[in-house]
Amino acid sequence: MKHFLLKQGGWEVDAKTYKVSWTEEAYRIHEVPLSSKLPLEKAIDFFHPDDRPKLETAIQKAFDHGQPYDMELRFITAKGKDLWTHTTCKPIIVDGKTVKLTGAFQDITDRKRVEIDLEKSKARISTLMSNLPSMAYQCKMDEQWTMLFVNDACKQLTGYLPAQLIHNKDISYYELIHPDDRVFVRQHVEKALNAGKHFELEYRIISADGKEKWVWERGVQGASQDHGTKLLEGIIHDITDRKHTEEELQKYQSKLEKLVKKRTYELEEKNKDLERFNKLFIGREFRIKELKDKVKEWEKAVGSRQ
Question: What's the CA gap between 233 and 137, in Å, rounded?
Answer without folding.
Answer: 6
